[in-house]
Amino acid sequence: MRPPLHITIPTNRAYTSERNWGKPAPMDGLNEIIRQNRTNKYVAAEAERDNLLHCARFIRAAMHKAGYAPMTKADRQRCQVYVTVIEPHDQRDVPNVFGGVLKYALDALTARNENGVGAIWDDNTKWMPRMVPSIRIDPKNVGIEITIIPLED
User: Fold this and answer.
1) Is residue 19 pLDDT above 80, yes or no?
2) Whether the Cβ atoms of residue 11 and residue 87 lie closer than 8 Å to each other
3) In which element (H, E) is residue 94 found?
4) 54-80: b or e for each residue (b if 16 or more CB lie within 10 Å)?
5) Is 143 in a helix, a strand, or coil?
6) What is the pLDDT of residues 75-119, one digit of tens each?
7) For a tag site, which of 30, 83, 107, 138 has the least CB within 10 Å?
8) Dihedrals φ, ψ of 146, to 5°?
9) Angle formed at CA 136 by CA 97 and CA 20, multiple of 5 degrees
10) 96: number of Cβ within 10 Å
11) 136 vs 48: CA distance, rounded Å
C-alpha cells in the first residue's frame, strides 16, 4: 500500500491594487471561472490550463520528494483526500472558494486527466469515496494543502 502524500501548493496570484500590491491573492474561485467563461472561451481555456499546470508542478515535486510513483491501471487504488484551502481573508463565500480550487487541484491530481500527474486514479466517487474540504485563514501562506491517504480495499 502507498504511504500518505502531503502536498502544498502556493497561490499563483498576487494583488494588483495599490493598497495590497504584491501580497498573495486567493486562487481563482467559481466567480472567476464564470467571469472568464463569459469573457471569451480562449481566455477561460488559458486560465484553466495555467491553473492546472501550476497545481501539477507542485504536486509532481511533492510526489518526487516522497518517492510516490504515478498510479497506473495495474496499481490504481481508492484514496481519501483532505483539501485545505488557505485564504488571505474571510471575505469570500465557501462555494466560490471551493468551486475553483477543487476543480483545478483535483484535475491536476488525477491520472486520467491529460494534464494530471497521477497522484490519484480519478476524482469520481468510485476512486475517491471521501474528500474532506476545509478552509484556513493565513494572509502570508495563501494556497492549498492536500493530503492523500490510500485506502485498503
Assistant:
1) yes
2) no
3) helix 94-109
4) bbbebbbebbeeeebeebeeeeeebbb
5) strand
6) 899 999 999 999 999 999 999 999 888 999 999 999 877 788 999
7) 138
8) -125, 135
9) 75
10) 17
11) 24
